[in-house]
Amino acid sequence: MLLGFYLDLFFFALWVGFYFSASLFFDSIELSRRQQKSELSLLRYQMQPHFLFNALNSIMAVSESPKKVESITQSLADYLRFSMTDIEHDLAPLGEELGAMDGYLRVEKIRFAENLECRIDVDQKTRGCNVPRNLVQPLLENAIKYGQQTSAMPLRILIQARLTPESLHLLVENTGSWVERNPKTTTGIGLKNLSRRLSLLYGGRASIMHDCSAEKVMATVTLPIKCTSPTSTR
Length: 234
Known about the structure:
It is a single chain. By secondary structure, the chain is of the alpha+beta class. It has six helices and seven strands, in the order H-H-E-H-E-H-E-H-E-E-H-E-E. Helix 1 (2-61) runs antiparallel to helix 2 and helix 2 (66-83) runs antiparallel to helix 3. The longest helix has 60 residues, at 2-61. The model is unreliable at 25-33 (pLDDT under 50).
């Protein structure tokens, strides 16, 4: 009888220990998830002043033309409207990202005029894939920023996306040659931000690769994505 009592006590203690261990484990997972969500939100918010700073530089570059300033301001508003919409979600269809890039490109097109050409080569199925928000903008920004330093005019940009059975490959290519970033004159915040967001969302399954030739520089993002159905773009 005494043995039965101790066995019951043992199993009760074992159950209590398991219960509290499981609770601590799941609480730890939930805390980690919330911390990751908070960091992703902070990283996205970090991109807003960074983009605004560059847009203001574009406005200053055409400040002598009121019509160009008005046009840039409207394009900037269109882009920010997308960036600030549905901020609780970390992913958006690639088609929506590319639609938002229209506003960004209008800002740069007003600044560079005929010295900038951009082509987007993405099929409808690929546009339906969910990708991290603000995925394209830092890559495009770098292509324009460094491309215009080394490319013969017009600077040509290609945005291309292709699907394989397990991955999406997004390419942003610009004419010109590779420019080593000077830490004294640039923070590289856009790509650092993007790299961290990809790490949080996909772990080691996503990557950013850079390649170059004598006349082109290529940045390729690879994401572990399967697309189901296309969505319409903005």
